[in-house]
Write the structure tokens for this entry.
Amino acid sequence: MSEHRAALSARSEDGRSFTIPDASGTPFIAGTLLLVSTPRGRRLALVEARELTAQEGDAEALHGRLLGGIDGDRFDPRLGEPFTDGVVELADAATIDLVHEAMGATLEVGVNLSPPTRPALLLAHRFNRHTFWCGQSGSGKTYALGVVLEQLIAHTALPVVVFDPNSDFVRLGELNPGASGPTAEALRQRDIRVLRANTPGAEPLRARFPALSLEAKAAVLRLDPVVDREEFNATVHLSDILSSAEPNEVLPALLGSSDPARRALGLRIENMGVLDWEVWAGRDREATLVLDERADATVLDLGGFSTPDEHLVIALSVLDELWARRAERRPMLLVIDEAHNLCSPELSSPLAVAVRGRIEQIAAEGRKYGLWLLLSTQRPSKVHPGIISQCDNLALMKMSSPIDLDGLATYFGYAPTALIARSPWFHQGEALFAGGFVPAPMLLSVNARVTPEGGSDVGVPLR
């Protein structure tokens, strides 16, 4: 490769991007990190595209971005000056390690697939931006997300709340047999709680109807302020009572009331079977009180309820409480697995719309209050565009849907298009990470987990 290195020359007209007019015969592809030596010093460069040029002989050009300058043992991410005739070589391991140290990349989640082979490290402090995590079924999305959550829980003080619809993360508080090393040892010391809908011996996952906001109560009862104006108005006038007493305590008075609107409200509660929902706290503590204790991680196992609305009640009660107390500015990472279930633009029930609306609000305004989202989904096209557009970090695993890939390329301009286009050929456990939480966009293979996966696939019985 030495002859190619000696012959390669790069130029930059703006100090931000670079071009290598003729890289024919070199192995450099999108994702490769290069060093460019100029009269003013060395620059770290990321190849983003390789394409044929109009030159005779079908020469291939490289294009990409400049990531910063290297001065001795110091890396400076600030933009540099334009240059011509920069001498190009492959970045070495020592340079990558220097960049990681300078940028504070400390969370080891895998191995970089682009040369030189180095640990894939994330910047923990850049989870103060929303993250979008996606991959089709079988891509290893849930397993890989578990790897990242283990690192965050073990090596930061950021409380993590997981909205877990498929019981995939209910074993985050356990360790695999024989698990060892700094991450395993740190996890042993962490306070990890799992709230479950209907599992004997587990801490119950519950909400309290009186503690819900008026808007949330109306959503539970499917009350529209215009269509159901009389019942909604009765709810408004009963707000003090409904905020201090459980529905079963109020129901007899509603059904026996001479006020038609109040009686209709009582009939609605009875006919919907709301009082029979397992989600209500009764003598148990509601999830919001548990979260207020600020455990290192809290998993909300949403999948065990008997009616679809009950997991929405939990989501809405938690999100509403966090939003109501946003001025306290207490950082928290909200991990929403299978985010298309809570964030789809096609949701129509009052409860689902209320949950999505609160997530939209947190996506738009939550960062300044320390409420940060990590949204994981199999189908990006099924997540509301207004929510996706607020995400500054991207984790993309295998994705074959052209519609989804086109959308990702549109929303995440900081992720090289050529790397996104490689997603259909990723192996299980491989991913593209881009955005503020990585030193540079990178392809990686995730590490093994130290905690058991809760939702691995069921095998096909064979003879």
Summary: Residues 209-276 form one domain. The longest helix spans residues 308-324.
